[in-house]
Write a structure and sequence with these properties.
elongated; mainly alpha; 190 residues
Length: 190
Amino acid sequence: MNPCSNNRKQIAWLALGELDPAGERTLREHLATCEGCRNYLEEISGVTEQLSAAAPDSKIRTPDLFHQRLTQKLRAAERNSVLEDLPGWFGRMTPGWRVALPGIAVVLLVVFAVVARRQPSNVAVAPAPAVVVVTAPDSGSDPAPTMANYQMIAGQSLDKLDALLTKEGNENLPPAPVYTASMTKLSDAL
C-alpha cells in the first residue's frame, strides 16, 4: 500500500526527528489509521538508521564546486516547496483570512465582469460578403474580373488563369475622370 502523497515529506522529517511537535502529533494520529504511511515511516526510519550508523570515510574529498552546486540545488528545491505547500499554507491561515480570501476573489470577479460589460465593443462585425456565381464562359467572352471568377478559373486550370490575367493586363484601361478645383463648390461651404 502506498503512502499518502501529501505526507511523504512530513514522514521523512519525522524519521529524522526534525518535525515540530504540533506536526508530529497530527502525523502520529494519521499514522494510527493509515497503513501505507506507517510502512513508509518504517522504510525511511531504516534508511535513516543505516545512514546514521555509517562512518564517514576520511579519504573521500569533495571539490568546492560540488558544495556550490549542492547549495544551488537546495535553494531551488526550497523555492519549489513553497508551491507544493500551498494547500498547507491555506490551512494554517487564521480563520478570518480563510473566509476573507474567497470573498475578495468573488468581489474581484464581479468588478471584472461589470467593467467588461461596460466596455464598448470596438470589433465591428462585417456583413457576409455577397457571393457572385458566374458560370464558365463558353462563348469566348471573358468573365467579370472578380475574385470568385479568378478562383473558379484557377480551380479549372492555372494556365487558363495565367492567360486571362495576361490578357486583362495588356488591355488599355478606360480613361479615369479628371477632377479640377473648379468642380468643387467651395463658395457653398463658406
